[in-house]
Write a structure and sequence with these properties.
Elements (H helix, E strand, L loop, with lengths): L4 E9 L6 H16 L3 E10 L12 H11 L6 E3 L2 H4 L6 H14 L3 E3 L5 E5 L6 E7 H6 L8 H11 L1 E4 L6 H6 L2 H5 L4 E4 L9 H9 L10 H9 L23
Parallel strand pairs: 1-2, 1-6, 2-3, 6-7, 7-8
Antiparallel strand pairs: 4-5
Helix pairs in contact: 2-10
Length: 252
């Protein structure tokens, strides 16, 4: 697919636990971008949030990263990156984007200067774009007072861009129209439609596990086995009683 702009998709969030619908976001977004004829998706990154986000019922990052890694065993283009989860504090989404953008540029092949030394200029090739992948529910949170900083929203949509996958009960076009910032940069917001609408959330998964109900076919089998082996999301598991107070900040 020569002439297309290479793209890497980045999804931030709790992934508590990762579900099949999280994985579907990547597939739907990739199909949508390819169908525009402008882009070629060359990779995907899942970045689980730091433990210090202190979301209710959030299990330790080491478990969430391990579950994502297991879930991606069958993917040849998506990977998990633990950088965000390994920091000493919670990191805002825009800073996670900046980090991965820098890593992406650093990974580009370098050219040799006139003195045959390595220069810092990338080889003459299309520079990959990094786009934030999210569901329409995240787009709605841009309207929540004091959750996202306006300058962060602008940097995300202006410098990086969004690929937003629709969810039942949400109106992404309406969210864009109601936001001056999103309206201004709507050319850099790609709305992808998921033909198989599904309202299954990680919250529902945790409740089902806590009540001993089956979650087969909602999570990869390897993730279900990991949850059972480590006694996660059950009434007597160690995550019960963690702080229910969220940071006053955003994550996807």
């Amino acid at each position: 697919m020569r002439g297309r702009i290479p793209v890497v998709l980045l999804a931030c969030g709790s992934f508590n636990p990762i579900t099949n619908m999280h994985l579907r976001l990547f597939e739907v977004a990739r199909d949508h971008l390819h169908q525009t004829g402008l882009y070629q998706v060359i990779g995907g990154i899942i970045s689980p949030v730091n433990d210090n986000y202190r979301k209710k019922d959030l299990v330790a990052a080491q478990h969430r990263v391990s579950m994502v890694r297991l879930a991606l065993q069958t993917s040849n283009w998506i990977r998990v990156d633990p950088w965000e989860s390994e920091q000493t504090q919670w990191i805002e989404t825009v800073k996670v984007l900046r980090h991965h953008h820098s890593e992406l540029l650093r990974s580009l092949p370098q050219t040799e200067g006139p003195d045959r030394s390595r220069s810092m200029a990338p080889a003459p090739a299309a520079v990959p774009e990094l786009k934030l992948l999210c569901g329409a529910d995240v787009l709605k949170t841009f309207q929540t007072p004091n959750l996202w900083k306006d300058e962060h929203i602008q940097e995300i949509v202006e410098k990086f861009g969004l690929v937003c996958v629709g969810r039942a009960g949400h109106d992404p076009k309406g969210y864009i129209k109601s936001s001056p910032i999103l309206q201004r940069y709507q050319h850099n917001i790609h709305l992808a439609r998921e033909p198989m609408q599904n309202n299954i959330s990680a919250t529902y998964i945790r409740q089902a596990l806590d009540q001993g109900r089956s979650v087969k076919y909602l999570l990869p089998d390897a993730v279900i086995a990991y949850i059972k082996d480590h006694n996660l999301y059950t009434r007597d598991s160690s995550w019960k009683g963690r702080s229910a107070q969220n940071n006053a900040g955003e994550t996807c």
